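dumping the sequnces here before i forget
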Amino acid sequence: MNPTAAILLIGDEILSGRTRDSNGNLLAKRLTAAGIDLKEIRVVPDEPDAIVSALNPLRAAYTHVFTSGGIGPTHDDITADAVAAAFGTGIDVREDARAILATNYDNPEDLNDMRLRMARIPDGAKLIDNPISKAPGFSLGNVHVMAGVPVIFAAMLDSLLPTLTGGAPVRSVSVRIDRPEGSVAAGLAALAQAFPDVSIGSYPFVTSGGFGTNIVARSRDIERLARVEKQLLTFR
Amino acid sequence: MNPTAAILLIGDEILSGRTRDSNGNLLAKRLTAAGIDLKEIRVVPDEPDAIVSALNPLRAAYTHVFTSGGIGPTHDDITADAVAAAFGTGIDVREDARAILATNYDNPEDLNDMRLRMARIPDGAKLIDNPISKAPGFSLGNVHVMAGVPVIFAAMLDSLLPTLTGGAPVRSVSVRIDRPEGSVAAGLAALAQAFPDVSIGSYPFVTSGGFGTNIVARSRDIERLARVEKQLLTFR
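..and the predicted 3d for all of it:
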């Protein structure tokens, strides 16, 4: 059994539609490659109750929970405090985090009270390195708290992911069929039945040339996958 | 108080990272414009238990729940059955849905058993018009079930959203023109200008016979709609 995961995206800007999230997609791809099964993504507003209400069932249900957003210096950055509340632990400015943050500012006065909020770390958490803007993320238990800015999120992920244990990576093959989904559905159903250990998904698309279908098969077993691919190619 | 909403995206392909969702962002923008407060987005796998477990709390918590994905003809399209299970209602091929679906196929034999799955509608649901590929979505209670293919999702949303924001029901007429979109675009633009109170959408398609265009006009005013339909018929 592979480890499982959920992603919790925190941000009013995603829910209003102003921002189209990219961190979820990046992390989904990275988890798949690492052999960690992503089972759920949630997006909630920048509200403590919403974060706590989502986080507690997710951290109970999955091996890992990854959060994105709400750890900057402004008044609406409340993720760290909400995570501490969800765990029922204390939270305060931590000296190691403050020292790391200070390296980002030539003038000590620039590390003002608002920026110091970024050194608030729940008791018992491990810091996640942020090579871009220093302000660290953190892991508390199985919850990994990262920034929302995509380039910083990606950098934190590079710091964090190698430390987590993955199962065997899931391989995939993709076969494009330039016919509508309905014309291959019966064949696919039979194939799925013959290969219960291979996950077979069907993704219709529309182009100016007409309807088509991408078939994606996924498995940890390369040989079984190759047999399914061979069958899929006959559908073309 | 504005109405509230959640979006439930159903799709292994989003969780694997293979597809970067766009329907959530489109709907978020449309809801914001319509004065409906989007409070949560969830992505779950193509698994009946996962859909039911997410859907029941969401439909209890928010005014509306919008789903995307899993209503095509293949074995992994299980959303309609999962929604029926969440509500504890029956589900079967419904005659009006079957009749709509049949208009998409010149040869009756092409409406095979797998494609007929797309006419499975839970008891008591209202159909959502799909001018692109006919297979309808549906609303059951406060849950609105739509396709995952972005162009079809967008067209269903155009059918559904005006009915949710109060006032007189929005009527629609659909005119099929067996010519490419570009050959009617100028005429459509002039028509849209002459009838600013009628929403006119254009949905290109491709068949073995070549390019064509479905024009869908929507309005609360039946007389204005009839005048637009009369004009559209002259485009044929």
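Chain B has a mean pLDDT of 91.
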